[in-house]
Amino acid sequence: MTETNNLNSTIQNLSRRELRDLVRTQLQMLLEAGDLQGAKSILVPVQPADIAEAIEGLPEAMHALAFRLLSKDEAIEVYEYLDYSVQERLIEELKSQEVCDIVDQMSPDDRARLFDELPAKVVNRLLEQLSPAERQATAQLLGYEADTAGRIMTLELISLKENLTVSQALERIRNLANASEMIYYLYVMDAARRLTGIVSLRELVTSQPEQIIGEIMTRDVVFVYTDTDQEEVTRLIQRYDFLALPVVDREQLLVGIVTVDDVIDILQQETTEDIYALGGVQSGGDNYFQMNLLEIARKRVVWLLVLLITNTVTGTIIKSQEDLLAKVVTLTAFIPLLTGTGGNVGAQSSTVVIRGMNTDEIRSLGVLQVIGREAIAGALLGGMLGTIATVWAYFLQGRLEVAIAVGTSLVAISILASISGSALPFLFRYLRLDPALMSAPFITTAVDVVGVLIYFNLARVILKL
Amino acid sequence: MTETNNLNSTIQNLSRRELRDLVRTQLQMLLEAGDLQGAKSILVPVQPADIAEAIEGLPEAMHALAFRLLSKDEAIEVYEYLDYSVQERLIEELKSQEVCDIVDQMSPDDRARLFDELPAKVVNRLLEQLSPAERQATAQLLGYEADTAGRIMTLELISLKENLTVSQALERIRNLANASEMIYYLYVMDAARRLTGIVSLRELVTSQPEQIIGEIMTRDVVFVYTDTDQEEVTRLIQRYDFLALPVVDREQLLVGIVTVDDVIDILQQETTEDIYALGGVQSGGDNYFQMNLLEIARKRVVWLLVLLITNTVTGTIIKSQEDLLAKVVTLTAFIPLLTGTGGNVGAQSSTVVIRGMNTDEIRSLGVLQVIGREAIAGALLGGMLGTIATVWAYFLQGRLEVAIAVGTSLVAISILASISGSALPFLFRYLRLDPALMSAPFITTAVDVVGVLIYFNLARVILKL
After folding, report:
1. In this predicted model, what pLDDT tens digit does every residue of B144-167 receive, in sequence order?
2. Given CB atoms, is B370 within the 8 Å cutoff of chain A?
3. At what angle do helices B367-397 and B335-359 cross, to 10 degrees?
4. Closest by alpha carbon to A242, among A231, A257, A253?
5. Contact A407/A386 with Cβ under 8 angstroms?
6. Does one domain contain both A199 and A238?
């Protein structure tokens, strides 16, 4: 007891990060020295998430050895926190029976997500070895489409009947708690398993023991369907500050719940996908920093090739104006300024519009209002930048006509970029394509190609060529 | 009862979004007709978050009128869900006493966040009118720095002593539940208010009534300090799948908790800031789609001006090569391709590195490893793109030397872009500047300026000019 307390007071003075590093280095030392008993004992007071990270930090050859130190219950918990690549390696290295025990005890939603990552051959082998009930639960989850509520829900929930008393309900919770991921919300169903209400453990604990569930439950239940998109699920949980959301099928029968911890993970995963897409990197749910480099190059090259073609078009237009450029060579110097600024204005507009779509901040504005606002903002920006660019170009080159051509082109390009930057995401959403992924190449194309055409034509008019 | 059931079954068949629209249009109709009683009754079965959205959707002149329909308890709940701009307007329009009642009853963390948004004059007036206890709580929260755990925590928590029995603890929870935001985690403190353990309501409910808290509590408590950055708080909650995290001061005394619903909001707000920064838009926490357009132009123009200067530098370099370009005009046509591709490769690298920093996915790799990986990926990409560009340029222009100059430049530029794209975010983090905001302009500058220099010099060598 005293020893544990000492360890605890040491732990309390370290940041979690320092603690994790300490556990990892000690674990590695003890394993290298062959002191399995010592290695086992240092893991006892550590949180499963931290054990998982310590194992991930070890050399690959030690993963299975370290994992075998854990008790069976601990092993299951720790396993769920490991990266998919480590989970996959462990499946190959552990004995068939060990794997089977762990996978059988995982919660069905975590298992379904693991199975998504594993090769089909391994999944089939594992499915065969699961107990019938677990096999059925997993198959049910795997039957729903990826990225829907059905796929991310857990089947472990506690349901109540309306006519129970509070004390009967608490008794039921006590009995079922071990088999349930979430016991803070209880779901009330009628005889047909239709969801009729919801009651929180908080309400149960603060109610009189003899009160009837039907009287204290909330009837206006917020729920989703099995095929509701996971982004919508996260929006609802976030909006109502819930800890879980019930999932029903088309007959309104309760089939599962989505919990807030999964929602945070999804939020992060979806955000990474959006940010990658905006940055021109395809994502596949894997950790970028663990992918091999050829895979990375493959995920990045497609988008670059699209833009290579775009840039060639721009280049060809520039080349077609050789006569103009030969007469006024100084016009060439401003091409990067015009296409660069146009690209940046367009990127700004598409960034705020795409983010606004995902967070629902746009909600109160219509599509035309958004585009109109961006067009005006683009005109304001173009006005400021155009004025500065005119003065700057005159100062640099000393030819007023060229400076005016640059300035007026910049105004036109800013408006064009704002409109295409805000309109194209809506178009792609309407066409059911991912706006974050599709917008950038098309905006760049529009702005570059149309932009240089505007510039050359304005220059011809203003310079009277 | 039957009426409510009918309404409920209607509600059940609508999506939440349809429901919200229905409530808003009906509410507006009834208010316009002057039927306050009718308006009041349609709001009764609706969730506070939905009422808030319905009010936001009304014409501004109706906001105060609609808000006054709510009972006092409801008003407080709904108020916390309203946008800051609407909250602010209501403070101006409602009578001083009404405002005071609402603000006094808000939870301290929500109130502190509202006060951050209000003009100092209004905050001082409101602070004066708060009850002494609430004033002290708010002042305490406002005393912590923005974006720290201290600022976002709530002071409402339930603490227990180690020597209580489970049934005594449950009795205490029953008594304190109404004044507490979170009753699912209970915090165990010693006589000096030092945090010694944590026990969940789940553990209490499933334990025997006569068990002692000290025996069932978890002693390895994950906690943060009042000055821990809010991003670190969200990472910990996400990592351990907690519903709340205790906050202690430097003497390890428990001062508050951060709850998971706040963490989701922060996650979203931080993500929006990151995405905006990556897209070149300054953010200030306000909703972009409610800002006025001049404000928007101001937030976007700074970054554009920086890039305008960058682009001018590139332009000047191009102009300095007039002799070369006059001799081989066709070289000009490939400038957009080279700078464009370089910019895109750099953006890809900085996107994944910045996101990796924020999600901690980089954790196991060192800085040099990350940069090295990106450099190799850049070389692979450059190799693919350079080969294609060489063939493509030869096909377009028919001069092999020009095509080779373009291809080799592209390889060099890809490597340069990958290295600067991955190294600059680390440099900015080290200098305590926001990598997401600072990286893009500097990467563009490096890639454009150095890129065209590489191109022109390679062209001179290869074309023997």
Report:
1. 888 889 888 888 889 999 999 999
2. yes
3. 160
4. A257
5. yes
6. yes
Residue B356, pLDDT > 60, answer yes
User: Do A297 and A443 fall within a single domain?
Assistant: yes
Residue A285 domain-assigned (yes or no):
no
Task: Specify the pLDDT at position A349.
Answer: 92
**Residue B236: which CATH number?**
3.10.580.10
Q: How far is A225 from chain B (nearest CA, A)?
A: 10
Q: A125 to chain B nearest CA, in Å?
A: 30
User: A275 CA to chain B: closest CA distance, Å?
Assistant: 7
- Give the 3-state secondary structure of residue B255: strand
Here the CATH number for the domain that contains residue B102 is 1.25.60.10
- Asked if B66 and B193 sit in the same domain, the reply is no
Q: How confident is the model at residue B364 (pLDDT cuts 50, 70, 90)?
A: low
Q: Cα dihedral sign for A287, A292, A293, A298?
A: negative
**Of B95, B116, B147, which residue is a domain's last?**
B147
Task: With respect to residue B280, please indicate whether it lies within any of the assigned structural domains.
Answer: no
Query: Is A275 close to B278, i.e. CB distance below 8 A?
Result: yes
pLDDT, average across residues A153-159: 87
* Cβ contacts of A279 on chain B, cutoff 8 Å: 278, 347-348, 350-352
When CB atoms are compared, the residue of A271, A332, A380 closest to B297 is: A380
One domain, residues A263 and A363: no
**Residue B139 falls within a domain, yes or no?**
yes
Is A206 an interface residue toward B (CB < 8 Å)? yes
Shortest distance, CA B13 to any CA of chain A (angstroms) = 9
Residue A88 is which amino acid? E
List, for residues B303-337, the tens digit of each pLDDT value: 888 888 877 788 888 888 888 887 887 888 888 88
Q: What is the DSSP letter of B187?
A: E
Q: What is the pLDDT of residue B9?
A: 47
Beta carbons of B158 and B183 less than 8 angstroms apart? yes
pLDDT at B247 over 90: yes
* End residue of a domain, out of B120, B147, B174: B147
Mean pLDDT across B276-302: 79
Angle CA(B263)–CA(B268)–CA(B269) in degrees, nearest 5? 95
Residue range A252-269: mean pLDDT, rounded: 88
Q: State the DSSP code for B404.
A: H
Q: Give the distance from CA B267 to its chain's centroid.
A: 5
| DSSP assignment of B204-230 | HHHS-TT-BHHHHSBSS---EETTSBH
Q: Is the pLDDT of residue B82 over 80?
A: yes
Asked if A172 reaches chain B (Cβ–Cβ under 8 Å), the answer is no
Across the interface, do A206 and B177 touch by the CB < 8 Å criterion? yes
Q: Is the pLDDT of residue A238 over 90?
A: no
Quick one: A70 and A218 in the same domain? no
Give how far A223 is from chain B: nearest CA, Å. 9
Contact A206 B337 (CB under 8 A): no
Measure the CA–CA gap between B425 and B438, rounded to whole angstroms: 8
* pLDDT for A337 beyond 80: yes
* pLDDT score at A162: 92
What pLDDT was estimated at residue B284?
A: 63
Mean pLDDT throughout A95-102? 75
Checking if the pLDDT of B1 tops 50, the result is: no
| B289 and chain A in contact, CB less than 8 A | yes
pLDDT-based confidence at residue A3 (cuts at 50, 70, 90): very low
* Residue A284, in any domain of the structure: no
Residues A54, A17: Cα–Cα separation, whole Å: 11
Chain pair A-B, CB pairs under 8 angstroms = 323
pLDDT band, residue B273 (cuts 50/70/90): confident
Q: Which domain holds residue B57?
A: 2-147
The CATH number covering residue A455 comes to 1.10.357.20
Domain count, chain B: 3
Q: Are residues A125 and A179 in the same domain?
A: no
Same domain? B267 vs B296: no
pTM value? Answer: 0.75
User: Does B163 lie in the same domain as B142?
Assistant: no
B365 touching A, CB under 8 A?
yes
**Interface probe with A: pick from B198, B332, B452, most Cβ of A within 10 Å:** B332
